Amino acid sequence: MGTMKPYYETDIIRVFPRKTKWTPSGENVFYGYAPLTGLGLPDKDIPVFISCVFTWDIQKAYKIKESWSIFYSDVKIGGPAFKDPGGEFEPGLFIKPGVTITSRGCIRNCPYCFVPKREGKIRELEIKSGWIVQDNNLLACSKSHIMKVFEMLSVQKKAIKFSGGLDSGLLKDWHIDEFLKLNVGELWFACDENKDLDSLKRALDMISDFPLNAKRCFVLMGFNGESIKEAERRVESVFEMGFLPFAQLYQSVVKTEYSNDWKKLSRKWSRPAAYKSIEKERQQLKLF
Asked: 84 with 104: CB under 8 angstroms?
């Protein structure tokens, strides 16, 4: 007997304005406008859900809705771009399989982050199975919740990725003890401002038993008038400290078009293979 498919693969249509590494694939998943002829679309009138993540895609999403409304009577539009606070998480629905979200919201009020305004303070959710933990601030949850998350992760067959980010200011020794029991692939932290460097260094000391490839760090660039030189110094500090950085250019509600120099810096520091080879060459040159 075959495995029963989840309802969202047969009973609804999921549409995304753009394809990213996080969007799901599979039956009844589409990207962008409905085909003009309707060819290839499900032949029954089922609900259409358009999920929009980025605010600068909102106008496009409304036009996408118009195109799908030609063929289907129930077309809804929503998602983070529409300030959706998020409810209980359903694996595989609007994000690729393997990802799990066990909490919403955050205790911080960082000026560059949309999460507190959209989702509010921490809300612990029912824990669903997955190996890519995408919580905004898992370590801000209660110990009992975190321990249940670790219990779920302990039976995963794939390497665990804490890609939602771990709050270095909340990291405790007991977290490390639990991480060491798991098949950890990636521990992600963040260095969005210079003031984050101290707590990041503290976190690095605590995760010293993990290999370099597991030590990852998001680095926000360009916020609040930051110059290219300032951003470059910070991302280099993160790398020299012992993390693999991943640069992200700051975006507000209205998308900013960055100069080629900014884009070049961001590209360099978002590909570990590229910047590790560059730094290796620099070290070799120092020997002569």
From this structure: no
pLDDT in tens, 13-69: 999 999 999 999 988 999 999 999 999 999 999 999 999 999 999 999 999 999 999
Q: If one looks up domain 86-286 in CATH, what number appears?
A: 3.80.30
Digit-coded pLDDT (tens) for 248-261: 999 999 999 999 99
In terms of Cα–Cα distance, which of 141, 196, 194, 198 is closest to 164?
Answer: 141
Q: What are the C-alpha distances in Å from 235 to residues 94, 192, 219, 246?
A: 32, 10, 6, 9
Q: How far is CA 198 from the centre of its chain?
A: 24
Specify burial of residue 91 (Cβ count, 10 A radius: 0-12, 13-18, 19+).
middle
Please report, for the chain, the start and end positions of each structural domain, with discontinuous segments joined by +.
7-81, 86-286
CA 276-190-201 angle, 5° bins: 75
Classify 169 in phi/psi space as left (phi over 0), alpha (psi -120 to 50) or beta.
Answer: alpha
Which residues share a beta bridge with 215? 187
In sequence order, what DSSP letters do the residues of 234-245 get, joined into one string?
HHHHHHHHT-EE
56 phi-psi bin (left φ>0, alpha ψ -120 to 50, beta other): alpha
